[in-house]
Amino acid sequence: MNRYLLPLSALGTVVGGAVLLKDNVAGGVCPSKATIPGKTVIVTGANTGIGKQTAFELAKRGGNVILACRDMEKCEAAARAIRRETLNHHVNARHLDLASLKSIREFAAKISEEEERVDILVNNAAVMRCPHWTTEDGFEMQFGVNHLGHFLLTNLLLDKLKASAPSRIINLSSLAHIAGHIDFDDLNWQTRKYDPKAAYSQSKLAVVLFTKELSRRLQGSGVTVNALHPGVARTELGRHTGIHGSTFSSTTLGPIFWLLVKSPELAAQPSTYLAVAEELADVSGKYFDGLKQKAPAPEAEDEEVARRLWAESARLVGLEASHVSSVREQPLPR
């Protein structure tokens, strides 16, 4: 019997070490124990993956959580599951199609009319490396959903967020933003040969630039906004890449994926952290890689690019001048 003890002990050490290494590589759990009773939270793309798990985490902490999704059947099912698992009955599903400016305006109008407050907005929904599709309004799908849709939604909800201050906006970006470049001559890939990876990277760079510029405009308002890379997660987001379904990926790269790829539960921890942590109450305009604040790509910190992208985004989505001017301009430092 004793001859098996050493091998078993060694195996246990290896397994335990691998689990600890995975937790360290993939990030940890939200260190904040803060609760949010009475606070209203909106999470886009919350019917599955990171969005659903973020909604679950914030419902567990007592929030009045609104799941904003395109597929209402899945959204209602997710809301029911969250209510059942958290025993929080203040979890509701609302229709929002970020590929439709009309849908975004209708959603924002309904929120403004029916909700007394909006304390936390988590712009989570995304499209990743899809074919060359366009939105209802003719925008390249990834730029349209990942950036323009959330740009319009956030601006339309700003009055409610300001009235509810202190409030927070969390924008999900990606590490892929470092490979991105904002091509102002062809933002919607109308003349260039379409590259789904480059389009995704551009859209996620736009999210960080939007975060920086919005933070500058919101100084003194009591509303903070930060961007984050949640990590690579096992979700439906990567369905167009094909990487998880290949034999090579599942066999040769399986151990590496197990180490580096997060579960939706773990990938939702950074969003939860930015939404509730008391120590982040005054932090704004920053980029987080998991739970840690880090510097984004150099282009993501270019204030002139951020200002130009804001102006072009407002033009593309038809944001009224009254909405733009209500977000107070702050002069650029000399």
TrEMBL record:
<keyword id="KW-0443">Lipid metabolism</keyword>
<dbReference type="GO" id="GO:0009644">
    <property type="term" value="P:response to high light intensity"/>
</dbReference>
<dbReference type="GO" id="GO:0005743">
    <property type="term" value="C:mitochondrial inner membrane"/>
</dbReference>
<comment type="similarity">
    <text>Belongs to the short-chain dehydrogenases/reductases (SDR) family.</text>
</comment>
<dbReference type="GO" id="GO:0042574">
    <property type="term" value="P:retinal metabolic process"/>
</dbReference>
<dbReference type="InterPro" id="IPR002347">
    <property type="entry name" value="SDR_fam"/>
</dbReference>
<comment type="pathway">
    <text>Cofactor metabolism; retinol metabolism.</text>
</comment>
<keyword id="KW-0521">NADP</keyword>
<dbReference type="Pfam" id="PF00106">
    <property type="entry name" value="adh_short"/>
</dbReference>
<dbReference type="GO" id="GO:0052650">
    <property type="term" value="F:all-trans-retinol dehydrogenase (NADP+) activity"/>
</dbReference>
<dbReference type="InterPro" id="IPR020904">
    <property type="entry name" value="Sc_DH/Rdtase_CS"/>
</dbReference>
<keyword id="KW-0732">Signal</keyword>
<dbReference type="InterPro" id="IPR036291">
    <property type="entry name" value="NAD(P)-bd_dom_sf"/>
</dbReference>
<protein>
    <recommendedName>
        <fullName>NADP-retinol dehydrogenase</fullName>
        <ecNumber>1.1.1.300</ecNumber>
    </recommendedName>
</protein>
<dbReference type="GO" id="GO:0010842">
    <property type="term" value="P:retina layer formation"/>
</dbReference>
<dbReference type="GO" id="GO:0042462">
    <property type="term" value="P:eye photoreceptor cell development"/>
</dbReference>
<keyword id="KW-0560">Oxidoreductase</keyword>
<feature type="signal peptide">
    <location>
        <begin position="1"/>
        <end position="16"/>
    </location>
</feature>
